[in-house]
Structure formats: structure tokens, C-alpha cells
Amino acid sequence: MQQIQHLINGQSVAGSDYFETVNPATQEVLAEVASGGEAEVHAAVAAAKAAFPGWASTPAPERAKRIRQLGELIARHVPEIAQTETNDCGQVIAQTGKQLVPRAADNFHYFAEMCTRVDGHTYPTPTHLNYTLFHPVGVCALISPWNVPFMTATWKVAPCLAFGNTAVLKMSELSPLSAARLGELALEAGIPAGVLNLVHGYGKQAGEPLCAHPDVRAISFTGSTATGHRIVQTAGLKKFSMELGGKSPFVIFADADLDRALDAAVFMIFSNNGERCTAGSRILVQKSIYADFAQKFAERARRITVGDPLDEKTIVGPMISPAHLAKVRHYIELGPKEGATLLCGGLDRPSYAPELPERVRRGNYVWPTVFADVDNRMKIAQDEIFGPVACLIPFEDEADAIRIANDTQYGLSSYVWTENLGRAHRMAAAIEAGMCFVNSQNVRDLRQPFGGTKASGTGREGGTWSYEVFCEPKNVAVSLGGHHIPHWGV
Ligand SMILES: NC(=O)c1ccc[n+]([C@@H]2O[C@H](COP(=O)([O-])OP(=O)(O)OC[C@H]3O[C@@H](n4cnc5c(N)ncnc54)[C@H](O)[C@@H]3O)[C@@H](O)[C@H]2O)c1
């Protein structure tokens, strides 16, 4: 059995205890992974602290060279990393291999370039020259969830290291394998020992002491809103970037290009197995086109291939774990009890769906499920289900759409479909969310600020927005001489 160890100060460190990581499609145990606690966290933070002065004072072009090299190594190993990722978290190979792992390589290339261009601002006055310096923050705790684990980890590691910080990365206990490979590749790329450390383990045992550690200066966390609240309570005064849950509205007006809207709506709720923070999980459709849209949307959902995530043709793979499957099934059971109409999917394999291939019969599967006649006050419309479950909600007019879209604790992403230019801009301004995509699915430009409002989080990452998390701006005010300095006679 493969064993995965912690990575501390460039060394592979055995665990005092191990947990198993399991393939959600087959239930096969993939590896035993070291389970860290306070001792490993302390050692990793100490290593990161010791490595910080050297790395922070390494000239940016030299840091960039190694960061770029890490991107190149990832790009060279895409098929291998994508397969590891798909086996570990169930996300389909068509996405991990063609989009997510290549995107991870891009993260390193992008931030390698950017760290050589960190400049400042100048604010000249008649008496002073003010300018800003951007310093690295120090030791950062980077915490990733189980969905899209590799891409999410690199989205944090790349800017964190590029700007001169050192890091302790903790992956989810449900999908730690691809990041273990990242640690190896970082050393191969010439990133010095101690700059990137990895402690594996559970949230309570490893994540909590990491966030609470007094030598950790910043926390970049992606995960659930509940865990985000807990971290803020236990971590003390630190810089936070919190990328949390969502229940994003996907609003379609009667004048929208219906075919494109249908494609995008299907993609935004069923891609990544529906295990996606930016999922358009509440689909708001104007009443005059609601019945037609619902019928066409359900038709498309029925045609989605559910199956072996290693098969290039599969669109929806297994849920990450039996516990998560049980949660998704709970909401599928709840929908009709709350008064929603089940259009397709449901608790068992529907008659129109082919049998699962033999290899994945024991997987944590659920079929794309569509509920119509959903009222936004229902729990299926308010809670983040985080699975392939779509809620179709009718609305009357623009005001009604805005009211429903904003009637949620979350504010991560949003989608507006209309051919009316003025309305598109009004909606984009009115929806309470960190991102709004007009006549589009979620398209993530690396320069764009990514993040949410309300219970979806605080802070933004991406492009220069990553300075907020991983840099400390300092203002320097230099007197030009000659201005009056008060003389207090002392
Ligand atoms: N906004 C975004 O960018 C984004 C992206 C992906 C996922 N998410 C959210 O992540 C959630 C799914 O991921 P999950 O179930 O792994 O989330 P989770 O909150 O259960 O766990 C996330 C990570 O936090 C760790 N953790 C748990 N308790 C901790 C604690 N007390 N202190 C420190 N670390 C702790 C876990 O071990 C894991 O590594 C969903 O809510 C989803 O919307 C958000």
C-alpha cells in the first residue's frame, strides 16, 4: 500500500498515525496518509518561519524562475496528476486532464510573471513624497477543500510563494494525493526546503492548530461557511482570505438566447459533479418561458452520462464520500416533501439511465436531478447541496428576480441571461455577489478578483487582488525638507 507522508523542511516525515484515502468511484483504498496534529504543525510552521528570511530576500526574478519551473513540471505531468486527482476525488478526467490541472500550471506561470512586476504607488505632496512598499506577510496557512483540490491548492501556493512568503499547506483529508505530488515537484523545481510544507490530516487535529498558531500571519482558506466561521473564532488576529460556500442564482429572462442559456445552465450545475462553489444551483426563469425551459432543461439533464470518471465521455462522476452522498440524497428526498416537482433524477438510478460500468458499481453515485416549482424559501433552495441537483424557480419581472436572487445568506457568484443591455447592467449591479457573469458561464480570468460577499466569504484572490492576502503594504513618507515642524518648546 502506498504511504503518503508529511513534507516538512524538504523532508518526508512519517506520521504517528495514518488515515486511508479512498477512490469514491470504486471504494478502493488508494493510500495511507500521515495524519498530523499539533506536533507536525509546530514543526512545519517552524520550518516555514526559518525559511522565510532567505526566500523573502531572494530577488523576485530568481523566485520567478523556480515558480515558473514548477509550472513547467506540472504541465509536463498533466496526465499523471489528472489521473491521481480523478481517482482521489471523483472529478471526471475530461475536466481534470483538459482544464483543471493545466490551469494549475497556468497559476504558477502567471504569478511567476507577476511577482517580478510588484511595484508600488507614489503620492507626492508639496512637502512629502509618499510611496508604498509591498512586503511579504510571512508564514501563511493555506487550507484547501476536497473539491477541485489541485487547482485550488495551486491558486493559493503560487501567489503565496511568488510574493516571497512561506507556507504550510493542508489539504482536505478526503483528497490529499495530488498535492503530495505538488510538494515533490516544488523541491524538484528548486524551491528551497521549508518554503512549502505540507501537513496532512483532519480539520480539527491539523487545521485548527495550524490556523491558531501565533507564527502564522495569514490564512487563505477555501471551504465551507461553517468551517470559515470556526477559523475566524479560533485563529486570533491574522489576515484572512475566506472563500466559502454558495447558492448562486442563474437568472434567465424571456428575451435570452435560450439555447445558449440552456447549455450554460446545464454546465454550471452539473459540471464538477455539482460539487462546485460557484454552481448556478438556483435557476430563476421568467414565468412566460418557464414551462418550456423546464422541459428542455430536464431533457438535457437526462442525457448526461453518469459513470466511470476515468472514461473521457463521462460528465458526472461519483460524490466524494458516502457521507456526502447521504447529504445529497437527503435533499433529493426532501424536495418533494417541501412541494417541489421532481422532473428527473431522484434517489435511484432512473429507468432512462444506463447501468453503471461494472468497475464503478460500488461508487457514491447520484443522477442529475432537477426540481421544478421550487419556492426560494424551501430548504433545497436555501441550503448548499453541493451535488448535481438543480432548483428551477419562476419569477415575474426584474424586481422579482432581484428579490429572489438576493434572498439567500450567500453571495458568491451570479449569472444573468438577457439580450437587454440596460437590464444586464442593472442586474449585475443589483445582485449581491462577488461575481456576475452576463450571458456566460463562469469564466475565470486569472486577473479577476475571485471571492464572495455575505456568508460566501471575505477577501478576494486573483491578479493584483492577491496582494491583499499575501502582501503587507507599507507607506513610506519622506520629507522634502523645509516644511514647518511644530516646535513645542521641549
Ligand atoms: N468560495 C470558493 O472559492 C470555494 C471553492 C471550493 C469549495 N468551496 C466550499 O467548500 C465546501 C466544500 O469543501 P469541504 O467540505 O472540504 O469544506 P470543509 O470546510 O469541511 O473543509 C475545508 C478544509 O478545512 C479543513 N478544516 C475543517 N475544520 C477545520 C478547522 N476547524 N480549522 C482549520 N481547518 C479545518 C478541512 O480539513 C479541509 O481541509 C463547500 O461549502 C464549497 O462551497 C468554496
TrEMBL record:
Top-level division of the source organism's lineage: Bacteria
> InterPro entries recorded for this chain?
Ald_DH/histidinol_DH (IPR016161), Ald_DH_C (IPR016163), Ald_DH_CS_CYS (IPR016160), Ald_DH_CS_GLU (IPR029510), Ald_DH_N (IPR016162), Aldehyde_DH_dom (IPR015590), DH_HpaE (IPR011985)
NCBIfam families of this UniProt entry?
A: HpaE
CDD domains for the chain: ALDH_F8_HMSADH
- Which residues are catalytic? E243
In the UniProt record, the gene name given for this protein reads hpaE
What organism is listed for this UniProt entry? Curvibacter cyanobacteriorum
Q: Where is the Aldehyde dehydrogenase domain?
A: 17-476
Please state which protein family the record places this protein in: Belongs to the aldehyde dehydrogenase family.
**Alphabetical UniProt keywords:** NAD, Oxidoreductase
Return the protein name. 5-carboxymethyl-2-hydroxymuconate semialdehyde dehydrogenase
Segments forming a coiled coil: none
